[in-house]
């Protein structure tokens, strides 16, 4: 992708990969420019979402971003807190996060996944006004849907390795299968 093509992606919206009754609905912060340009979630080459999903046992092999719709066959889906495409999540305003939390709540109420997994505890804290939230299961629910905050798989989140992230994602997988 050229820098111009990436910048043009700021106007793009990526469709959710969702269905009713999923086991886990993964929720990213917002699409990055590479995702906006390709139309695929977690498309940036350095993003560790797809490797971690496989390492944690959610998928039998490492999927590529363009294979995102295969997640549905595993009872998994993907959405975002904020639909707006940006180069970095810090370009989003607290108001966008809060509005995203409201829209996400309505989506979860409609789709009723067993778990909502927000990949980015800071995004979860702002969107759901829960300043003390930590990685792991949350006390808040949306109807019957339980919420789990996961580490953000962005390469910028360097203090989490792929292996330590996979261990946390595997905790969620075990809970969702129980």
Q: If you had to describe this structure to a student in words, what would you say it looks like?
A:
By secondary structure, the protein is of the alpha/beta class. The protein has one domain (3-177): 3-Layer(aba) Sandwich (Uracil-DNA Glycosylase, subunit E), CATH 3.40.470. The protein is built from 6 helices and 5 strands. The chain has helices at residues 3-8, 33-38, 49-55, 94-111, 121-127, 162-177; strands spanning 24-28, 76-80, 115-119, 136-142, 145-150. The chain has a 5-stranded mixed sheet with strand order 2-1-3-5-4, sandwiched between helices. A hairpin with a 2-residue loop joins strand 4 (136-142) and strand 5 (145-150). Helix 3 (49-55) crosses helix 6 and helix 4 crosses helix 5. It starts with a helix and ends with a helix.
One letter per element, helices H and strands E, the order comes to HEHHEHEHEEH
The percent of residues in helical segments reads 25-40%
**CATH architecture field:** 3-Layer(aba) Sandwich
The total of beta strands comes to 5
Q: Radius of gyration, rounded?
A: 15 Å
Number of domains: 1
Helix/strand class = alpha/beta
Protein name: G/U mismatch-specific DNA glycosylase
Domain Uracil-DNA glycosylase-like: 15-176
Organism: Streptomyces crystallinus
Pfam family, one: UDG
What topology does this entry show?
Blueprint: H1 3-8, E1 24-28, H2 33-38, H3 49-55, E2 76-80, H4 94-111, E3 115-119, H5 121-127, E4 136-142, E5 145-150, H6 162-177
Protein name: G/U mismatch-specific DNA glycosylase
Organism: Streptomyces crystallinus
InterPro entries: MUG/TDG, Uracil-DNA_glycosylase-like, Uracil-DNA_glycosylase-like_sf
């Amino acid at each position: 992708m050229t820098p111009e093509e990436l910048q043009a992606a700021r106007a793009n919206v990526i469709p959710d990969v969702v269905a009713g009754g999923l086991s886990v609905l993964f929720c990213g912060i917002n699409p990055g420019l590479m995702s906006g340009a390709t139309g695929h979630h977690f498309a940036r080459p350095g993003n560790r979402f797809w490797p971690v999903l496989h390492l944690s046992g959610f998928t039998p092999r490492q999927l590529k971003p363009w294979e995102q719709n295969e997640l549905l066959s595993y009872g998994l889906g993907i959405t975002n807190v904020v639909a707006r495409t940006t180069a970095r999540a810090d370009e989003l305003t607290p108001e966008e996060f809060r509005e995203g939390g409201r829209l996400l709540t309505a989506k979860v109420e409609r789709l009723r996944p067993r778990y909502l997994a927000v990949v980015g505890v800071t995004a979860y804290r702002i969107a759901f006004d829960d300043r003390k939230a930590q990685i792991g299961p949350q006390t808040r629910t949306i109807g019957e849907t339980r919420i789990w905050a996961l580490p953000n798989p962005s390469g910028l989140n360097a203090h989490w390795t792929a292996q330590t992230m996979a261990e946390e994602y595997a905790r969620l997988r075990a809970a969702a299968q129980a």
